[in-house]
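[09:14] KT: can someone run the structure on this one? pasting the chain below
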Amino acid sequence: MPFYSMGTSATTGNPVKKELLISVNPGSSSLKCSVYVLKERLRLVMKASITGAGSGRCRLKLEDRFNQQHIERTLQLETVQEIVLFMTRLLVAYCRGWKIAAIGHRIVHGGNNIANTEEINDFFLKKLESVKVLAPLHLPGALTTIAAFRAIFPRVLQVACFDTTFHKDMHFEARHYALPRYLWKSGLIRYGFHGLSCLSVLLQLKSTGMDIRKYKIIIAHLGSGSSVTAVQYGKSADTTMGFTPAGGLIMNTRCGDIDPGVAVYLLAQKKLTGKGLDLLLNKAAGLKALSESDSSISALLEREGSDQRAAEAISMYCYQVRKQIGAMAAVLSGVDLLVFTGGIGEHVPEVRERICEGLQFLGIQVDQERNNSPATGLCRISARTGVYVVPADEEWIIARQISDHLAKQRTLKRS
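[09:31] RB: done, structure tokens below
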């Protein structure tokens, strides 16, 4: 790697050999990895992300807390496989001289029978392969990533952490569709997603001294994939995504909720195949379809003054998020805290402000000055009902979960 010395590792200035945990977070268009020192309190020592998967021009961001390096580079990578290979080589170079205790992988969907964590082996991978149709934008890439990490780190314990676990105890009305019950048994239920993000938000709020069990909280995770989740007593009460991550809100290239008759019509009258329908709803819909150009909110904001389609796409997105916040407030019988997270939620103040317009009846109103210049990390952007911006830290949650899994495994071996 031309930008990063292969002879430089995390051991610089720190000759004591310690154990590391690696968190792997593959998204629909990104790959993020973080490295932590495993001890009583997890300590982040390096994080790296590659965005723009599939574009041919990817953006690498790397922060090395040991060597005080911060690097941003454009990479010529064409495929997901190339991105994963690049990241694994980077991690091999960085972790040289250390013992890697475990690697945790974010898995968007685990199907109907999931635990908090599950060790990755051949049997697990067969199960994951069987449910990849439930998350076609995510699971194929996750399987590719896992295969690469197992090949590079064959003797390291690898663990799956599921996005759906957080929502598995939603009450009956939120968990099921009005379909024949035998279909529920085959797995056709509402799973919910962005669970690791929601957990990271709740734990960050808790770290400020809040007793999150006493608050009615709505979490708007807004990014390439977007969802709104209602949290009561510290647990998921309802969420907008359902059977797959394509449901709920309008997203960058996903349609969100539509009349089921639309799918029937497209299959019967427009002669789409199942694969063609999947591609339409997941990769050719959403903001990309509305604007007929771009799926990026930032790019659409730049053009909305001169491009009516861009303006309409942004308006519809904000409308849908606002509507779902209102719906989740009804689920909770009120709202105490509204939290924005995810790439759009954290970094696009114009969208946050437009979403909150019209929510004054819930006591939600952003302070314009605070909203336009939020502090790094968790910050409040309102004066009345608590409206917060909280960075999603899924890699930290993954590290916590694999640390707990490792501790239990070692306790069992000693007993």
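[09:33] KT: thanks! The longest helix spans residues 308-332.
[09:34] RB: yep, looked fine to me
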